[in-house]
Amino acid sequence: MSRRLSALGLLSEIDGNMLSLYCDAYARWVVGSRGLQKHGLLTKASKKGGVVRSPYATLVNQALAQMVRISAEFGLSPSSRARIQTSKEDAGSTAENEFFSRLRS
Of the candidates 84, 34, 83, 77, which has an alpha carbon nearest to the alpha carbon of residue 57? Predict the structure, then answer.
């Protein structure tokens, strides 16, 4: 993913921390997802003996929310991509603008 983002001009060296945060959230999402698969969505409460939502569900939901927020910063959703111009797009639009301005002169 980092190579693709870099090629589009959406990732540079200074974005390393943000990418690390995304990777950390992804790792927590994987752990939580595996826990849900193994133990299920509900678990027994230790004190009351009732059934409660698995802590893995909370882990999955929190990690997923962080991944979605960070993904938007890198233009990884259709709506966030619409708001982000890549350096390649910028270069193309600059060349287009220059071309059309020469035609008008």
Answer: 34
